[in-house]
Amino acid sequence: MGVANFAVGGLNKLALVPELPLDLDDLCDAARRQTGLDDFGDPWFLRPLEVLIEAIREEASLNALGRFAATGQFMKVLRERLWTQHWFDTHEEILAEPLAPPVIVVGPMRSGTTRLHRLLAADERFEHMRFFETVCPVPEPGFRPGGRDRRPRQAGRLLSTVHKLNPRTAVIHPTGPFEPEEELGLLVQSAWGMKHEAQWRIPTYGRWAEEEDATPAYSHLSRLLLLVHWARGRNVPRKPWVLKTPQHMLDLPALLRVFPEAKLIFIHRDPAKVVGSSCSLVWNQMTIHSDEADPHWIGEHWLDKTSLQIDRMQAARSRIHPNQRIDVLYRDMDADWEGVMRRVYRFLDMDIGPALPAMQRYVRNAKSQHRWQRHRYDLTSFGLDQKTVRGRFERYASAFDLHPKPARPEIVPVMQQGARQALA
Question: Which InterPro entries match (predicted)?
Fold first, then answer.
């Protein structure tokens, strides 16, 4: 990590890597010059981007690599906003056909949403995002649908770089350029979401976003899904998307304004596991970008953030018609994933049979992948303990039976009286 920061800092000083200031106007001007375009589409995204940039400057304590990465990320978003509007302006057919109502997995970070999402993504009757599409959702001008696409290689290089900087990230969230992935990158196109808080220490941005209406970000997400489908070059009817990202926990009202007929699958896990795993994920990302990452601050912040996610989810869920939602437990997925998925498919009014072979292949491959490497974490590393965390979520845990089950006592047969006497 230190070597990478030193190298990037040196390249900046030598002007081999141009160092742009973290200033919204300067970044926008640079993006316009680089692309030759000037229409970013809905300007709503500029406000969250402005708040985000200000919070990074004031709070994130970025190292040289972190500053380089932040500038690169913002330039990428701005270029892709310009390219997106270019595609919409030059290919009206992209937005002509509406999306089918999606199936959306909803749960906090580290609650098993990835496993549930990938099981559904194994079903060819659904559309799903692939990693390279969520990292690089917008092709450059000149791209032809179904033609040569440089984005998978770009995403693979980025993934390889992150894994080299911190190999633990590959254990926490294993993936590859063509693997099913959440649509988080589509919200990043609006500078929106907890993804930024999991990367940088930016509490001001987090508090601001918690009070804003996310509907414009989700509207842009829906249009990007249309663009992703178009870029695949498939002359077939659109299938329902299967979506998931923990950000939905905070934004269910906005999500349902944009996708009012969506089917929602809520997944629930012991909050102590959710908080511990979330803190570990954030720590392993934040240390790439800052040399001053504080594990105890991360523990306090993500305990509060998880609490807010769950409170907002429960409030919004109570207003959703039971025919539109179903609840599943992480614990049940561990014990009998196939039984849970059969129940999910009955809720979706679909036959699970055609999807089962692909689901079973995914499970076998996932078990093989995790055979020697497991994501390990400890609440005490983040200044927390199980009693404190579970006390914070007592009502939620009771509502969904999330309390840890006691270990079953060893069963010792009671000897008959005659046998006892014989041994005496």
Answer: P-loop_NTPase, Stf3_sulfotransferase
CATH code where residue 181 lies: 3.40.50.300
Full residue range of the structural domain in which residue 344 is found: 102-139+150-403
- 16 alpha-carbon distance from chain centroid: 33
Give the side-chain half-sphere CA count within 13 A for 273.
14
- pLDDT of 376 reads 67
Question: What does the block give as tokens for 171?
Answer: 């254990």
Residues 6+ apart with CB under 8 A from 236: none
**Domain total of the chain:** 1
Q: Which of 8-22, 95-109, 119-133 has the lowest mean pLDDT?
A: 8-22
pLDDT digits (tens, 9 = 90+) for 222-264: 999 999 999 998 776 789 999 999 999 999 999 999 999 999 9
pTM more than 0.70: yes
- Identify whether 330 is part of a domain: yes
- The tokens describing 27, both together, are 């970044």
pLDDT tens digits along 119-165:
999 999 999 999 899 988 999 998 988 778 888 888 777 777 766 66
Read off the tokens for 362: 């995914």
Q: List C-alpha distances in Å: 213 to 171, 250, 261, 407, 411.
A: 34, 10, 20, 45, 56
Any domain includes 244: yes
Whether 26 is covered by a domain: the verdict is no
Dihedral (C-alpha) 332, 338, 342, 347: value to the nearest 10 degrees?
50
374 or 306: which leads in pLDDT: 306
Spatial contact of 196 and 87, defined as CB atoms under 8 Å apart:
no
